[in-house]
Amino acid sequence: MIRPEKHDYPVEKALQFLEPGPVMLLTSHHEGKSNIITLGWHSVLAFPPSLVGCKIEARTHSYQMVLASRECVINLPGPDMFELATEIGTCSGANVDKFARFGLTQKKADLVSAPLIDECHACFECRIHDDAMVEHYNYFIFEIIKAHVSDAPDASSTFHCTPDGEYVLSDEFLRRK
Ligand SMILES: Cc1cc2nc3c(=O)[nH]c(=O)nc-3n(C[C@H](O)[C@H](O)[C@H](O)COP(=O)(O)O)c2cc1C
């Protein structure tokens, strides 16, 4: 897998990557360990600040890690990583080191303890902005506080969940201004 070169990107523009609803790999770090969860249920909420809401089930290891650390990184995998996303989303960090198992590279973030996944083409460092809906809905509202993006990502750089367990690419536009 390649590790796309990334540069700093304006946080106020980061939501444009998340608006189409791509599959995400969300990383967390707590008590010396890092973890990854695959997420399909999320939504852009507001800007500025750049807010994104993510459903992280309470039964997951990531839920505990994010709640304890109050931080995460949202990473966007390219379409070549779709099988990996499925595998990451079907095992638990409670008993597996997913970075080691899947051969992914942890890159130190600038502002949070959770690592970037260097094989991903866009990585957004986040802190919990509002936890009011966590208890009842397991819904976290994050603020993007730092963005790292590779050059010229295009629409086909992401993939999306369908209800039947398959993925779809967003590689065609219906243009209307
Ligand atoms: C394509 C896909 C999308 C998923 N979307 C979500 C989601 O939005 N929220 C969630 O809590 N789990 C989602 N999952 C399931 C988690 O990724 C899965 O429970 C994972 O094993 C949890 O890992 P953890 O226990 O290490 O945190 C998804 C899984 C896949 C494969």
Structural domain tally? 1
CATH topological fold name: Pnp Oxidase, Chain A
For the record, the CATH architecture stands as Roll
- What is the total tally of β strands? 12
Describe the structure.
- The chain is of the alpha+beta class.
- The chain contains 5 helices and 12 strands.
- The protein has helices spanning 15-18, 61-69, 82-88, 98-101, 134-137, and strands at residues 6-9, 24-30, 33-39, 42-46, 51-55, 71-76, 106-107, 116-117, 122-130, 139-150, 159-161, 167-169.
- Strands 1, 2, 3, 4, 5, 6, 9 and 10 form an 8-stranded antiparallel sheet that branches.
- The structure holds flavin mononucleotide.
- Flavin mononucleotide is lined by residues 23, 35, 37-41, 55-57, 60-62, 85-86, 89-94, 161.
- Flavin mononucleotide (FMN) binds at residues 23, 35, 37-41, 55-57, 60-62, 85-86, 89-94, 161.
